[in-house]
Design a protein that fits this description.
Blueprint lengths: L2 E10 L9 E8 L2 E9 L4 H16 L6 H11 L6 E9 L2 E7 L3 E5 L10 E2 L3 E2 L5 E4 L5 E5 L9 H4 L4 H11 L7 E10 L2
Helix pairs in contact: 1-2
Length: 192
């Protein structure tokens, strides 16, 4: 089934800061999409520098490659930096391949997906990359968020919002001002 992706994101630095250690990469190339949220350790300029390194790598990474190799490359490029947590979703049509390291959470609505985060810090130490796979149903939604968003946010109740509205709601009303905060939403829709 041909699909399209509707994506949105919002990210803000810690209250009182200008540098943001959280970052997002959204790429669509035909029927393939990359959705990633990065949360560099700490906050401020050094965290922002690490996040920029991760973004540069993911923006240049060939989407045809295996995600495990991409995560290993991301791990290598972050060596010598503060390091980061990150969740990366690779979508090929309805097929989802996911890998997350650290505490950037992922929730999947509309399809049961085995989301399991890998412990560790990209750029420092990761014992193994846990790869998760699922076939997404039409209308499925992925929500990625850094630990600057409360895990107590009422995600189920907010589900009727469109991607832009959901990101705005999470940042406006469920953000922790003591940390950088990021929300990313990706909806999968069948093309008519």
């Amino acid at each position: 089934m041909p699909v399209s992706y509707v994506m949105a994101h919002r990210t803000l630095p810690k209250q009182g800061e200008f540098a943001n250690g959280d970052a997002v990469v959204l790429r669509i190339e035909g029927e393939v999409a990359l959705v990633a949220a990065i949360d560099a350790l700490g906050h401020g300029e050094l965290a922002e520098h690490a996040a920029h390194k991760a973004v540069a790598f993911l923006e240049a990474w060939p989407l045809s490659e295996d995600l495990r190799d991409g995560m290993q490359g991301l791990h290598e490029v972050l060596r010598g930096s503060r390091g980061a947590a990150a969740s990366v979703c690779l979508l090929r049509g309805q097929e989802l391949v996911f890998c997350g390291v650290g505490n950037v959470e992922v929730r999947c609505f509309g399809t049961k997906a085995p989301i399991l985060l890998s412990p560790g810090v990209l750029g420092a130490r990761v014992q193994q990359f846990r790869m998760c796979r699922a076939t997404l149903a039409d209308g499925s939604r992925l929500v990625l968020y850094s630990d600057g968003i409360s895990h107590r946010a009422p995600f189920e109740a907010l589900h009727p919002l469109d991607p832009e509205g959901l990101c705005e709601e999470l940042i406006r009303n469920h953000r922790k001002t003591s940390d950088d905060a990021t929300a990313v939403v990706c909806d999968l829709r069948a093309k008519a």
